[in-house]
Design goal:
BirA Bifunctional Protein, domain 2; five-stranded mixed sheet; Rossmann fold; alpha+beta; seven-stranded mixed sheet; Herpes Virus-1; binds adenosine-5'-triphosphate; 18 helices
Length: about 525
């Protein structure tokens, strides 16, 4: 299936099965804002638990925090967001569509890179076993010419970004003949800066009101509480503070479903370390975070690091973990070595010391910080796009049928087991209800008696339920039931008494955490 089609189907599936709805849908929706439905919220909560436990439960030097969304406006001045949290925007005068100038250029670079990849793949087919990719890349004239284009453009692009040279950004777009994907024309406006923070007013009267911002990241709540936590928790460096919460960004171009939203949720952890040790810790956290993703079993070939060439004003090293979404490799998580930038800024703007007294060294210093920052919604999209499968099944009469199944890791699945009486009589529903009643304290269970058993299985496959329990007439005789496995569709007969143990072992978070 073409990846674009897969993505469209995935979005439709999320809506049809109660995972994600467009926000305010009866009023025609609100751009780039989404609501999570009855299954979506369960999956989201499970993702958050996996992250939270891997940070706070598994590390005795990491603790949690839940800071407010509203914060003192000077925080955003100190952090640099008021002056520098901008995206360069450009409009096409014919289509009236708005773009991020940097994204237009990045997409152009990716297109040239695609040409190289195609050339390499063609050659690989032609030469077969004896193909030497490295040599080919170093000698093929077309590859070399395109690589030169990429290198030249990258140099010019990085310089323009670093110097915030908006005129040059527009010139790059013109010189490279980049067209609007909608109108196909090059009729561009000038590039302007656009601040991504939403603002509102706090206070009852307009004169007395204070302009405040909706936080664009949760990290600053951690920085300003750094000493509160350190002192009250008697934390010793190195230590970390983890937080999950909403963040808001007035994104210029919001698209690709929940990949880029205007209201979203982040899971961030700031790890405070001794100055000079930050790059070692950066390396360590890169490994730890990649392992966390890969433990879900979606295939290591679907992940890669993308090290930043252009570093943010606060960082001395940065990388993204990218996942292969149906629309290509894209960032799900950022890992940044933020130096002492933020704490130093807050010390300067607040006039309060942001230093840590190191008892071992007998001196005070402002710690350096490694940040791991992941979007809950992007992680959700990663999980659901990796889990979505359409399978062709052969029926007994020789015809084929399509089964849509969400192969969610069992711990993440919203419903762990569905309990189904084969028929609605002979005392079978009562047994099924009793099983649900006994197991609902341990797992999210669903009782389902409507439609044929085959259709009920399909319904559960579509929401990703890993186990279906069927009660039939044999149950009346020997207290056994069938357990049907979502992925293999195999069925096994087990006794009712065993159910709790069997399922517990399979769906518990411990299994997942032990892989880390
Ligand atoms: P991008 O380059 O995609 O705009 P970013 O580099 O600005 O992302 P960070 O500021 O590093 O992102 O934020 C950390 C994480 O928060 C990202 O890796 C992503 O998972 C998530 N995130 C950021 N912006 C959004 C958004 N608009 N919608 C959903 N998730 C987001």
């Amino acid at each position: 299936m073409a990846q674009e089609d897969k993505f469209k189907k995935l979005v439709a599936h999320c809506k049809e099965y109660g995972y994600v709805f467009p926000s305010s849908e009866i009023y025609d929706g609100l751009s780039a804002v989404y609501d999570y439905g009855q299954y979506g919220v369960e999956l989201k909560n499970n993702i958050k638990k996996y992250w939270w436990d891997s940070m706070v439960l598994l590390n005795d030097n990491i603790v949690g925090l839940d800071s407010a969304i509203f914060m003192h406006p000077t925080i955003w001045k100190a952090s640099g967001h008021v002056d520098a949290f901008n995206d360069p925007l450009i409009d096409n005068k014919d289509s009236k569509k708005r773009y991020r100038a940097d994204v237009l250029i990045e997409e152009h670079l990716a297109k040239i890179d695609d040409k190289i990849t195609k050339e390499v793949e063609k050659a690989r087919e032609r030469f077969g076993e004896s193909f030497d990719e490295k040599k080919f890349r170093e000698t093929n004239p077309r590859v070399l010419a395109n690589q030169l284009k990429i290198d030249d453009l990258n140099t010019r692009f990085s310089k323009a970004l670093n110097e915030t040279d908006l005129v040059e950004l527009k010139q790059i777009i013109i010189d490279n003949e980049i067209v609007c994907p909608i109108s196909g024309t090059r009729n561009w406006t000038d590039v302007r800066q656009f601040n991504l923070m939403f603002s509102t007013e706090m206070g009852s009267t307009a004169e007395g009101a204070n302009k405040i911002y909706l936080r664009p990241e949760t990290a600053q709540g951690i920085f300003v509480n750094f000493l509160n936590v350190q002192k009250t928790g008697r934390m010793k460096i190195p230590f970390g503070i983890a937080q999950i919460g909403k963040a808001f960004r007035n994104e210029i171009v919001a698209r690709q479903f929940i990949f880029r939203m205007r209201e979203f949720e982040q899971m961030e952890m700031q790890f405070f370390v001794q100055p000079g040790t930050e790059l070692e810790w950066f390396k360590k956290w890169k490994e730890v975070r990649m392992k966390w993703h890969q433990a879900l079993g979606f295939g290591s070939e679907n992940y890669r690091f993308h090290d930043h060439v252009k570093l943010a004003h606060y960082a001395n090293a940065a990388t993204d973990i990218e996942f292969k979404f149906p629309f290509g490799f894209k960032e799900v998580e950022g890992i940044h070595s933020r130096t002492d930038y933020d704490l130093k800024q807050h010390q300067e703007y607040s006039g309060k010391k942001m230093q840590y007294f190191d008892p071992e060294k007998g001196e005070s210093y402002i710690p350096y910080v490694i940040e791991t920052s992941i979007g809950v919604d992007r992680m959700f999209l990663q999980v659901i796009s990796a889990a979505y499968h359409e399978e062709e099944l052969k029926k007994e009469d020789g015809s084929t049928d399509i089964r849509v199944v969400l192969r969610l890791p069992s711990f993440l699945a919203p419903v762990k087991l569905a309990v189904m009486p084969l028929v609605k009589k002979d005392g079978l529903p009562e047994i099924a209800e009793k099983i649900v009643h006994d197991l609902k304290f341990d797992f999210n269970c669903q009782y389902d008696e409507k439609d044929s058993i085959g259709r009920r299985y399909r319904r559960q496959d579509a929401i990703g339920t890993p186990y279906c329990i069927t009660i039939d007439h044999q149950t009346l005789e020997d207290k056994s039931v069938t357990i049907r496995y979502r992925d293999t569709m195999e069925q096994e007969r087990v006794s009712i008494e065993q159910l709790k143990e069997i399922i517990k072992e399979k769906v518990s978070i411990q299994g997942l955490l032990k892989k880390l």
